[in-house]
Specification:
The complex is a heterodimer of chains A (318) and B (254).
Chain A (H helix, E strand, L loop, with lengths): L3 E5 L1 E2 L2 E2 L1 H17 L3 E6 L10 E7 L9 H15 L3 E5 L2 H12 L6 E4 L1 E2 L4 E5 L4 E7 L5 E5 L15 E5 L11 E2 L3 E2 L12 E5 L9 H11 L2 E4 L1 H5 L20 E5 L5 H7 L4 E6 L6 H4 L2 E4 L2 H17 L1
Parallel strand pairs in A: 1-4, 1-6, 4-5, 5-12, 6-11, 7-11, 15-16, 15-17, 17-18, 18-19
Antiparallel strand pairs in A: 2-3, 8-9, 9-10
Helix pairs in contact in A: 2-3, 4-8
Chain B lengths: L1 E6 L1 E3 L21 E3 L1 H17 L2 E8 L4 H10 L3 E6 L8 H12 L6 E5 L10 H9 L3 E11 L2 E7 L4 E8 L2 E5 L11 H7 L4 E5 L9 E7 L8 E2 L4 H15 L4
Parallel strand pairs in B: 1-4, 1-6, 4-5, 5-11, 6-10, 7-10
Antiparallel strand pairs in B: 2-3, 7-8, 8-9
Helix pairs in contact in B: 2-5, 3-4
The chains are: A alpha/beta (318), B alpha/beta (254).
Chain lengths: 318, 254
């Protein structure tokens, strides 16, 4: 067991942004552990070999054309047994969440999921929706499986490169793949483009009920902002799904993100932590949203938001 | 149709968390606990399927004595029976260890369908379901929004990223991890609460094979603040005035 194997993911023909981040995390680990850095991807690694990668595996099989947990688990198990790495690093995507835990279990290992930092022999994860951090150590006898949280590592400093590319053809039989995946689809055409909005006012559970939404909508109107929400608001149907920010919704990076009554669960933070400025209004001083906020108001949103709306209107009128 | 729902008891969402003196977990005595929210949706999905297709819903929960209250709530909502794997130190087992505990109990159940939440609100590893399916040798799907049963097969709508979805078909028995918020959760009725007291709860003892953990939680701590947050004090009007100053001269959106 030697080497750090980063298993990367495509999004159609392009690479998933978070794959670059996972490769950067894998490179840090390889440098620190003085081990070679390898990468692998189903369907080939074209256009995605960074300078530090010494070997790339293109995993190819007709039964892997459409993702299935069974196909990916069986194929990557064979690859890992052949390559015999000490570490296997994934981007923490929905697809990885679907197969990587089972893959690790086949080696008697537990995936250390959604890692935000790597230190001296420890992998840092967030607990209790980001209220605490935890250091995990790998104590198993097999390879150490890790998945990397979106936005936790910088992909920017990876220079392109070339290296040996090995085509890996796993042994797969149609009968081993138990599920039949359909074509991916969208529910409705997107009519709100939060990604390009310069100012976003976003509302969370703290708003308590649908009838209170206008309080926040008024503030958005006063600021000329788009209105967005965290997942529970959209699940309840209080605002349409297309206004949802977070891992299952849109990723935004506005000039200002004003979070109202949003506690800041990890799934929400990954969708907005690229914002240039963040203002948070929340009644709970310990809410994780304050970890990413530039300005914070601890208070009752039902008092603070109407006061702010009035003050903004006054400032604009002046 | 035999449905098993694996649920977990976790600290209530708005809890104030304090770290235990040994630094490896949190202080539990002063916390209140509730069902893990995604697991509540898994239970609701199971109860809806039972209403449509008939059968029995069994709740499976590994946890200490305090988990009894969460099990009783699930029975009051309409689950038929429960299995409580008594385990004092759930947090010191890794996912594989927990999944093995659950697998040991579920094997005797002849379940057609196993449901659980997509992740726990405390540890958030999001993998117990997938690993349990792997140990049991049955197919699975994660982040499920809708479930349709057609004879001996299953059709589920999975959530993908960025607003994409996908239907997936697979044979039964199977395991699904359920997304939060996909249905309206029911409340227990008075009759349900009464009936829950007479329902069967099977108690199992967890073994003590923690040493087999491949991953150990070494230390918990309050995250170091990476960002300097300027807290704005004062009453609503005062805070609003200060925020307008910030919006105008620092963020420059006014």
């Amino acid at each position: 067991m030697n080497g750090v194997l980063a298993i990367l993911e495509r999004k159609g023909a392009a690479w998933n942004r978070i794959s670059g981040e996972a490769l950067a995390a894998a490179r840090n680990l390889a440098t620190h552990e003085r081990q070679p850095l390898w990468c692998a991807a189903v369907g080939g690694t074209d256009g995605f070999v960074a300078g530090a990668v010494t070997r790339a595996y293109a995993v190819e099989h007709e039964l892997l054309e459409r993702y299935t947990a069974d196909g990916y688990t069986l194929a990557l198990e064979q690859l890992i047994r052949e390559a015999d790495p000490a570490y296997v690093v994934f981007p923490h995507t929905y697809q990885v969440r679907d197969f990587a835990p089972g893959l690790a279990a086949r080696f008697g290992e537990t995936l250390i999921a959604d890692v935000v930092g790597i230190g001296e022999g420890v992998f840092v994860r967030q607990l209790l929706q980001g209220k605490l951090n935890a250091d995990y150590r790998h104590t198993g006898g097999g390879p150490c499986f890790v998945s990397i949280q979106s936005g936790a590592f910088r992909a920017g400093d990876l220079a392109p490169g070339t290296c040996e590319v090995k085509v890996f053809t796993p042994r797969l039989d149609r009968s081993q793949i138990r599920s039949q995946p359909g074509e991916p689809f969208r529910m409705a055409a997107k009519t709100v483009d939060l990604a390009s909005a310069p100012v976003i006012v976003s509302v969370g559970r703290g708003i308590k009920e649908q009838d209170n939404i206008p309080i926040v909508a008024e503030l958005a109107r006063a600021l000329g902002a788009e209105l967005a929400a965290s997942r529970p608001i959209c699940d309840n149907g209080w605002l349409p799904m297309e206004r949802q920010v977070g891992s299952s919704g849109q990723t935004v990076s506005p000039k200002l993100y004003l979070a109202v009554g949003i506690s800041g669960a990890i799934q929400h933070l990954v969708g907005m932590k690229g914002s240039k400025s963040v203002i948070a209004i929340n009644k709970d001083r310990d809410a994780p949203i304050f970890e990413v906020a530039d300005y914070g108001v601890v208070g009752d949103l039902f008092e603070v938001v109407p006061a702010l709306t009035a003050a903004v209107r006054k400032a604009k009128g002046a | 149709m035999q449905i098993v729902v694996a649920i977990k008891q976790v600290p209530a969402r708005d809890s104030t968390i304090r770290i235990a003196p040994h630094g490896r977990w949190i202080e539990e005595p002063d916390l209140s606990f509730e069902i893990n929210e995604p697991d509540a949706y898994a239970l609701e999905t199971a109860l809806l399927l039972k209403e449509k297709h008939g059968g029995e819903v069994t709740v499976l929960c590994a946890g200490p004595d305090r988990a009894r209250s969460t099990i009783r709530d699930a029975l009051a909502k309409g689950a038929d029976r429960a299995i409580h794997i008594e385990c004092e130190n759930l947090e010191s087992r890794d996912t594989l260890g927990v999944a093995r505990l659950l697998a040991g109990a579920v094997r005797q159940e002849k379940a057609d369908l196993i449901l659980t939440g997509l992740q726990s609100d405390d540890l958030g590893m999001g993998q117990t379901g997938v690993v349990l399916a792997q140990i049991l040798g049955i197919p699975h799907a994660t982040i499920v929004m809708e479930v349709e049963i057609q004879g001996s097969s299953l059709r589920v709508k999975r959530e993908l990223e960025d607003g994409w979805f996908q239907w997936v078909e697979m044979p039964l028995p199977a395991l699904l991890t359920i997304q939060s918020g996909i249905s309206k959760l029911r409340y227990a009725t008075l009759m349900g609460i009464k009936k829950a007291k007479t329902k069967e709860v099977c108690h199992l003892e967890a073994g003590s094979d923690i040493d087999l953990s491949s991953v150990t939680l070494h230390r918990v701590y309050v995250p170091e603040k990476k960002k300097q947050t300027r807290m704005i004090d004062g009453g609503p009007a005062e805070a609003a005035a200060q925020l307008v100053d910030v919006l105008r001269s620092e963020v420059r959106v006014l």
